[in-house]
Amino acid sequence: MQIRRIAGAAALAALIAVPAAHAEDVYTLDPAHTSVGFKVRHMMVTNVKGSFGTVSGTVKFDPEKVENSSVEVTIDAASIDTNHEKRDAHLKSADFLDVATHPSITFKSKKVAKKGDQWIATGDLTIRGVTREVDLPFTLSGPAADPWGNQVIGVDGALKINRTDFGASWNKALETGGMLVDETVHIEIGAEATKK
């Protein structure tokens, strides 16, 4: 009987000694300090730049094992702004983003891995209802405490996509050769997220 009590006590002590599974910290993107910008070559001579004004999302961040982290982002496609009303209206149309049918652009990571000094989030990017897997290289800053005692992290990333892969294939040929709008879109992301 005494042996059973000792064995039971030892098992309980061992169970208590095992640390609880580490849960990722949950951060929410701060829209005031988050930007998604892009640029596209126009008429083969210059870059047209723009951005999306409405971005939301959640980051699950594991400071002990960053590879366990994940991110989900939603962009309001209609919030596109290139500082030209007529062009913005065309970009919102079915020729490009088709915001009436597909109001959101989303990214949902599937894994995070380190390559050299950089991290890469691999995940599903959905534009116009078409989903493609992309690699998003990024750098990570923080965590740090802001003046109000909140814990924040920062993420800066950039990637290139081919817009025709997502069904945005509108274009016009130029008399001098080439196309009016390049197929390659360069995307830059700067995000700050606050721990819930």
Give a verbal description of the structure.
The protein has 196 residues and is mostly beta strands. Helices cover 12% and strands 52% of the residues. The chain has two helices and eleven strands, in the order αββββββαβββββ. It has helices at 2-17, 85-92; strands at 25-29, 35-42, 46-52, 55-61, 70-76, 80-81, 104-115, 118-127, 130-145, 151-162, 181-195. It has an eight-stranded antiparallel beta barrel with strand order 1-4-5-7-8-9-10-11. The termini are far apart. Mean pLDDT is 88; it is low at 1-21.
Adjacency order of strands in the biggest sheet? 1-4-5-7-8-9-10-11
- Number of helices, counting only DSSP H or I runs of 4 residues or more: 2
Question: What is the mean predicted local confidence, pLDDT?
Answer: 88
Measured by DSSP, the beta-strand proportion falls in over 45%
Number of strands: 11
**H and E order:** HEEEEEEHEEEEE
Which structural class matches the secondary elements? mainly beta
Radius of gyration: 23 Å
Termini gap = 50 Å
Helix proportion: 10-25%
Low-confidence stretches: 1-21
- Globular, elongated, flat, extended or rod-shaped: what is the shape? elongated
Describe the sheet with the most strands.
8 strands, antiparallel, barrel
